[in-house]
Design a protein that fits this description.
Distance between the termini: 73 Å
Shape: elongated
Protein name: ABC transporter ATP-binding protein
GO molecular function: ATP binding
Radius of gyration: 34 Å
Largest sheet: 6 strands, mixed
Strand order of the largest sheet: 6-9-10-3-11-12
Helix content: 55-70%
Number of strands: 12
Structural class: alpha/beta
Membrane topology: Multi-pass membrane protein
Main location: membrane
CATH architecture of one domain: Up-down Bundle
Strand content: 5-15%
Organism: Glycomyces mayteni
CATH class of one domain: Mainly Alpha
Number of helices: 21
CATH superfamily of one domain: ABC transporter type 1, transmembrane domain
Amino acid sequence: MITRIRKNLGGLKYALAVTARAHPKAAAGQIVLGLVQAALLPTTVYLTKVIIDSVQAGHTRDAWLAAAGLGLGVALIWTVVFAYVKLVFLVFDHTARASDREIMELMGTPPGLDHHERPGHLDQVQRIREDRGLLGGAVNWLAQFLRGLVTIAVGGALLLAVHPLLLVFPLVSLGAMAIAKRAGDIEVKVQEATSEPERRRRHLFEVATLAESGKELRVFGSAPEVARRHHDTGAEVVAERNRGQWKAARLATGEGLLSAVGMAAGIGIVLYLAIRGEATAGDVILLVSLIGMVANAAGALGIQTALLVRTGKLGTRLMWLREYAKQSAGPAVPLPVPARLDDGIRLDGVTFAYPEAERPSLDDVTLTLPAGKVVALVGENGAGKTTLVKLLSGFYQPTSGTIDVDGTDIAHFETDEWRERIGATYQDFTRFEFTARETVGIGDLKNGYDDDAVRAAMTRAGAEDVIDDLPSGLDTRLGARWDDGTDLSGGQWQKLAIGRGRMRRDPLLVVFDEPTAALDPQTEHALFERFAEEVHAGRARGTVTVLVSHRFSTVSMADLIVVLDGGRVAESGTHDDLMARGGAYAELYTLQSSAYR
């Protein structure tokens, strides 16, 4: 229990820090003004009592002084309220941007892909996405919480000054607050339990609304089916959350009854004291006002507590994500990445299984990727080709075995430093809808989007024609969704991605994972012919080029061909060696080449 409270308080501290960094002065101003308001409200009520008692007693001077104080207090309260509301919107606006940056940074920092692919991690990320709006109100809720505590404390002190029995009401109100906090916990628990179906509902919404799926939805007439699944999944989420909300509402009813009983008892005590002549008319006004004020403060405390608890849980998830990034960032004392490769990259007994997978994607793979050579990976879908590329790129660490770069385990490198020596183009490339210069240049930010560097990369990619065909050259804004944007074909987007992957001039590893699926076989062959020539011309650096392709006319140009089957190396060698062996590669090559005759 204590550990959980400490963890939640640590998460709340982290969440508040995000808000405080967004606009420190406005955040501090909210806290100060909230406390000032908490002190002013009971003070004005007390001055009202003084006015009434002074008038009854004929103390004119005291009545006028109290009236002046009351007027000043009311003016200050309204001034504080207006200033406070302005600060609330100011902090919320700045925090909305800061929290998005924080989450983007945390999502993009981890070197691995677990948080994008593991269901348990995805549930955590989904909760972060759902609740990130809480960060904007965190300081407001803390200020209101502190204001409520001060109001109850000051109100309790004033009630105690009249009669000790009146302290029963603030204590009852705090009990009601504890019930409200319990109701909030129930809603949080239900939200966590429905994270996975909520992710599924959002996925179905994206499928139904994104342009990428529009063609298939219409051709197959599947839009109604997707809508039905979205409705059913949404109904499941709503039903489960409604059950939790009803349970919380029943608790909230108990809270209301307890508050009502406390208020009735407090007013009864006041009337009893007034009837016995132990309380003046001013005391009655003061006490009734204080009871209402304390009741409102206690009710607000319950709500603010529940919101702060949710914010604290969001903070703990953000802390988890940051800690996850630190744990997977690499060794404490990394070894330097070599300037060039002499031997190459060796996989020794490498096995890798995705979380929750029934069987490993790679199983005891021992393989050498020679320095200065082009290595092609072939095999059926699911053979382990892309998984091998992910391991080489540092997205995952092997479950067992090692990957050595010139004799040094890749795990001993600082991940970012190793990746700075990688040039890569993947089949599922990103369509950065920036200017053409930025879309390509983002592949090596050290060059600062230099025109010459971008054009050189496109030339190395054999795709300089794409830039020449754009209406404003490198300044062309890409993407049809923008007013000044230019739409591109799938092949043009792919060529830009290949150019992006060729931005780095001195890579030790170049990866092409099905990067030309949108290009015709002749264009792909010409591109890789140029790549092979460049690799062979630059052997002094010892760059290893890894090519994944299903087109054997391209694969045949590689210096080494590795055939994967069921996560294992079935055979390897040059094109001529494998054809002479008459094994799986020869069979697949003959089968594919016969289709073009």
